[in-house]
TrEMBL record:
This is Thioredoxin. It comes from the Bacteria. Pfam families: Thioredoxin_2 (PF13098). Keywords: Signal. Residues 371-398 are annotated as: Disordered. Residues 1-19 form the signal peptide. Residues 375-384 have a biased composition (Basic and acidic residues). Residues 19-134 form the Thioredoxin domain. It comes from Hymenobacter perfusus.
Length: 398
């Protein structure tokens, strides 16, 4: 009988162990206690820094952290510790954490080895753990080599890649890329390795290279992705010029639009829209968008963004200018709605029509939004609330 009970207990333990989902086992004690334990056990430390409301953090917790391969490796290799940096701001300041999720790797004495960040699949997450123990890939080993003067091409390439995911306030990412590009010949600059390295970076040197050499990237990236990146760079520079008092800034943006883009009319129109956005001149912003909407196949993102900004900020220039701007954007709405007749876009149209003191049009858009909400399985609560603020239609009054 005893042996039967022993067998049953063993079976239940094995079953429960198997049934429980694998996950990284985070130490629930305080950071000093984790450091002490690491020294005693001669075990390196993995730190997961998160913040409430971080959707990428939640995705990692629900997927990669629960992957059997990831959980098994991390639990066997590290003491794992998680820290809410919104609550423990001292920890965030000490280790210069400005993005989430951030992953820190320490040796058993508490010295930092490596850091990374972002939502990652299991393979990349495991690669990070292994990178921590290799001087050729560990972030802090690379940082020390850079500070010691290493500027070889291969090193700059590896350090530049590590900097992309370091989530720090101040990092020499742009400088490292500039130094790397100087080491490359004209042919090397066109290589797939270099072009992929540049395209993945979001720094001024990378932006300049992408926008000036768009054709280099199309063999390795979708043409739409390259074009989108180039236009976002143009838009950003135009907004900066709009917020500047130097007229020369916008001249350089116009020059970029005419020299770096094949569709110069679209590029110039995009630059003008974003220039007025930077100036917060909402009437000219709407006017420029209306002109842009007359081009073949205008981008719905641009039309929707202008409509949204006018709804929220159009009143900044006073009632008269607001009404003039609304008059411009209401002429754009039919084009936007042909491209994306969604609940959100119809609701936005209704709100703009209401601001423009056109209750009949506002009611029509709001009712169409309700119909669309049913198709999209939305509640339509915002449209319902808007309808209660509008005067009844003539048929409803009878």
């Amino acid at each position: 009988m005893k042996s039967a009970f022993a067998f049953l207990a063993l079976f239940l333990c094995s079953f429960l162990s198997y049934a429980q989902p694998a996950t990284i086992a985070f130490d629930s004690t305080a950071w000093p206690a984790v450091l002490k334990r690491a020294k005693q056990e001669h075990k390196p430390i993995f730190v997961y820094a998160y913040a409430p409301g971080c959707r990428y953090c939640k995705k990692m917790e629900q997927t990669t952290f629960r992957d059997k391969a990831a959980a098994t490796y991390y639990n066997a290799t590290f003491l794992a510790y998680k820290v809410n940096v919104a609550a423990d701001t001292a920890f965030a300041r000490r280790y210069d954490i400005v993005g989430f999720p951030t992953y820190l790797y320490f040796d058993s004495t508490g010295q930092p080895l490596h850091r990374s960040s972002g939502e990652k699949p299991t393979a990349a997450f495991l690669a990070d753990a292994q990178a921590a123990f290799q001087p050729s890939t560990a972030f802090y080993a690379l940082q020390h080599q850079y500070e010691a003067g290493n500027r070889t091409p291969d090193f700059l390439y590896r350090y530049g890649q590590a900097l992309q995911y370091s989530t720090q306030h101040h990092k020499p990412q742009a400088q490292v890329l500039t130094e790397y590009l100087v080491t490359q010949s004209a042919e090397q600059l066109k290589s797939e390795k270099t072009l992929r390295y540049i395209f993945e970076q979001n720094t001024p040197p990378a932006d300049e290279f992408v926008v000036q050499h768009q054709a280099y990237f199309t063999p390795y990236f979708p043409a739409t992705a390259v074009q989108k990146r180039a236009y976002r760079i143009l838009e950003s520079r135009a907004r900066q010029a709009g917020s500047s008092s130097q007229n020369e800034d916008f001249k350089s943006v116009r020059h970029l639009a005419y020299t770096a883009f094949t569709d110069t009319a679209r590029a110039n129109a995009t630059a003008v829209i974003n220039f007025w956005e930077g100036r917060h001149d909402w009437f000219r912003y709407a006017q420029a968008t209306r002109r842009y909407s007359q081009l073949p196949q205008p981008d719905s993102y641009t039309l929707r963004k202008t409509a949204t900004y006018l709804y929220h900020f159009g009143k900044e220039q006073g009632p008269q200018k607001q009404q003039e701007a609304l008059g411009e954007i209401l002429n754009v709405l039919p084009i936007l709605l042909r491209q994306e007749r969604t609940y959100e876009s119809l609701l936005l149209a209704a709100r703009l029509a209401q601001q423009a003191h056109r209750p009949v049009q506002a009611r029509q858009f709001a009712q169409e939004a309700l119909t669309q909400a049913q198709q999209e399985h939305e509640t339509g609560d915002e449209a319902k609330a808007l309808l209660t603020t509008l005067p009844a239609s003539p048929t409803q009054k009878q």
